[in-house]
Specification:
Blueprint (H helix, E strand, L loop, with lengths): L9 E4 L7 H12 L11 E9 L4 E5 L12 H12 L5 E10 L12 H14 L4 E5 L5 E4 L16
Parallel strand pairs: 4-5
Antiparallel strand pairs: 1-6, 2-3, 2-4, 5-6
Helix pairs in contact: 2-3
């Protein structure tokens, strides 16, 4: 079961088997996105899956480019696609998974700073939280209650 307290911004799962089914479905969809990862330079495959309020699941994978930083992370591919296809539908949850090409075991793979900023922007745009789940070390997984909790002291629309 997940560890947390009422004031916590996140939950920690000590093993994958403890994760609730609704999050496991998203993790599975994110893992399926590995198939479309274009990562010839890093060999680090990342998949993401976003659950929308209407029940749609939008997956994405990382897309690298020799002209860094022209590529996109899986999280942004998934979120931008959700925003383009369903502009007025809230994003509820996002799962992110990562592994080295050729390996079966998932690695820790928290979202980068740019992805955290994009998650925050979508959360602010829809005026409701987005839960994020990803692996943080050998066995532990984290589920945040909000994207904002991944980016303390953030810069957003209210700063403009």
């Amino acid at each position: 079961m997940a560890r947390s307290d009422e004031k916590a911004t996140h939950f920690i799962y000590e093993k994958k088997e403890d994760i609730e089914d609704l999050y496991m479905l998203l993790i599975k969809k994110a893992e399926e996105a590995f198939a479309s990862s274009y990562s010839p330079y890093s060999n680090f495959e990342v998949g993401a899956a976003a659950l929308l309020e209407n029940g749609e699941i939008i997956s994405g994978s990382n897309q690298e480019n020799a002209a860094y930083p022209s590529g996109l992370c899986a999280e942004r591919v998934s979120l931008f696609q959700a925003g383009a296809r369903f502009p007025n539908v809230k994003i509820i949850r996002l799962a992110v998974v990562a592994k080295r090409r050729g390996e079966k075991e998932l690695r820790s793979g928290g979202p980068c700073g740019m992805c955290r900023q994009v998650m925050l922007e979508y959360e602010q745009k829809q005026s409701s939280p987005i839960e994020i789940i990803f692996k943080i070390d050998n066995e532990n997984w984290i589920r945040t209650k909000t994207a904002a909790s991944l980016l303390p002291f953030s810069f957003g629309k209210d700063n403009l």
